[in-house]
Each structure stands twice: as C-alpha cells, then as structure tokens.
Design a protein that fits this description.
The strands form 2 sheets. The chain has a two-stranded antiparallel sheet. A two-stranded antiparallel sheet has the order 3-4. It has helices at residues 2-8, 16-35, 38-43, 45-56, 60-90; strands spanning 94-98, 105-109, 114-118, 125-129. By secondary structure, the chain is of the alpha+beta class. Helix 2 runs antiparallel to helix 4 (45-56). A hairpin with a 6-residue loop joins strand 3 and strand 4 (125-129). The longest helix is centred in the middle third of the chain and has 31 residues, at 60-90. It has 2 domains: 1-90, no CATH class; 92-130, no CATH class. It binds zinc ion. Zinc ion binds next to loops. Zinc ion (ZN) binds at residues 99, 101-102, 104, 119, 121-122, 124.
Amino acid sequence: MNQLRKFMYGRYGVDRFSRDIILFSLFITLIASMTRSSLLLWLAYIPLFYAIFRILSRDTQKRARENYIYADLIRKVKVRAKNTKLLLVGTRTHKFYRCKGCRQMIRIPRGKGKISISCPKCRREFISRS
Ligand SMILES: [Zn+2]
C-alpha cells in the first residue's frame, strides 16, 4: 500500500473524466463480447490506455482542465436533455419561450391570455400570449 502511495505521488490520479472513460471502455468491451468482434475488443483498449495515461500523468493542471471541460460538457448535455424532455412532455399544456436576454428556456401554462413574463434567470420582462 505504501509503495502504491509512493508511486502515485505527484501523479494526477482518478477523476470523473478518467472514471467515465474507463466505463466507456468497459461498455465497448461488453458490446465486443456480445457481437464477438475482435476489432471492437482491440478498439476498447484505446480509451482504457488514455484513462491510464491521465491517471498516471504528472501534468496535473492540464488533466484538471480537461476534467473541468468534460464536467461542463456533461452539464450542458444534461440541461439540453431536460429541456427536450420538458418540450416533449408539455407542449399541450404549456408554451415555451426562449429568453432573448440569456437564452433561458421559459415554460408558461397555456390559456392565460396576454401576460407579462419575467425570466427567472436574468429578470428580463416581456409580454406574450400564453
Ligand atoms: Zn433571461
């Protein structure tokens, strides 16, 4: 255990990005074994080696920046998925607007006539038919 600690000293270690790359690699391995594709099995090693490279890397600033960019990307994808789900579920009962100030998606119940809408994010107001 002490040897491992000594070996890992100054190295970046595991972060969310590396963990997800390893999970992605395992996922490809699973598909490769189900389809019996040896090419896919070999391709699964590429993300795995990249994850190992990141974990053992001594350039911790660069790895931290990559992890930050990855986390930001995941956050954006989650927001988009949530908005798409809201759009798909609620078009009959709600109307959707995008704030002209900050591009925030705003959901308004239908059938309330002409109303003043204020953006919950940037407080910009506009009048629209609901
Ligand atoms: Zn806004």
